[in-house]
């Protein structure tokens, strides 16, 4: 089970510093944080967003993901079927096409959705929001679990200004069904998991006219945002 926490930057640093379990940090070529850029696609009627907002089964997300540091790009389709299991499938994708779906890309999306949830979007898929952040990945060998820390989370709608999550990070734990050691440490520090989706929460925060539904509590508490340049 994945659990997500929005935590103030200073508090997160203190809590992680006091976590005394054996923790390994992913490091590549001397780097410990890596930049991710994602562009999410939806129909003009925001079918993907609304399916998620209302908690519908057989929902989906379509995005391109760019691993900025390694200059690698992918087209990804995430689906959640009748058994509430999330499946992510992807293919390599040209960086120059990260903000559009090519005919081949659209064929892949339609084929994947038809096989996974039995339907395809009725409208044209277009970019609706872009996210960017730096990610640190932790590994806890005692449990074989992972956690990620996303810093500088930024959202931007097409043609709009970029907004960064100010003074806060998103911690996500991935520990199977039971709570892991890091979850319990966060709880002991008074930090509880909440609902946040980089796609849907970003959409709801930047467009208050959209139904927040599943993310209402997260959005209504007032995520601290500041304008930035990408």
Characteristics:
mRNA Triphosphatase Cet1, Chain A, VTC_domain, alpha+beta, Molecular chaperone, 230 residues, CYTH-like_dom_sf
Give the SSE map:
Layout: E1 2-8, H1 9-17, E2 24-25, E3 34-42, H2 47-53, E4 59-67, E5 72-80, E6 86-92, H3 103-116, E7 126-140, E8 145-156, E9 162-165, E10 168-174, H4 181-188, H5 198-206, H6 216-220, E11 225-228
Antiparallel strand pairs: 1-10, 2-7, 3-4, 3-7, 4-5, 5-6, 7-8, 8-9, 8-10, 9-11
InterPro entries: CYTH-like_dom_sf, VTC_domain, VTC_sf
Organism: Arthrobacter agilis
Domain VTC: 2-206
| CATH fourth-tier homologous superfamily | VTC, catalytic tunnel domain
Low-confidence stretches: none
Identify the CATH architecture.
Alpha-Beta Barrel
First-to-last CA distance: 33 Å
The number of domains is: 1
Q: Secondary-structure element order, as H and E? A: EHEEHEEEHEEEEHHHE
Which CATH first-tier class would you pick? Alpha Beta
Structural class: alpha+beta
Quote the average pLDDT.
93
Share in helix: 10-25%
| CATH topology value | mRNA Triphosphatase Cet1, Chain A
Number of strands: 11
Net shape: globular
Major β-sheet profile: 11 strands, antiparallel
| Binned strand content | 35-45%
Radius of gyration: 18 Å
Q: How many helical stretches? A: 6
Folded structure, characterized:
The protein is an alpha+beta fold and 230 residues long. The chain has one domain: VTC, catalytic tunnel domain (mRNA Triphosphatase Cet1, Chain A), CATH 3.20.100.30. The protein is built from six helices and eleven strands. The chain has helices spanning 9-17, 47-53, 103-116, 181-188, 198-206, 216-220, and strands at 2-8, 24-25, 34-42, 59-67, 72-80, 86-92, 126-140, 145-156, 162-165, 168-174, 225-228. Strands 1, 2, 3, 4, 5, 6, 7, 8, 9, 10 and 11 form an eleven-stranded antiparallel beta sheet that branches. Strand 8 and strand 9 (162-165) form a beta hairpin. It is globular.
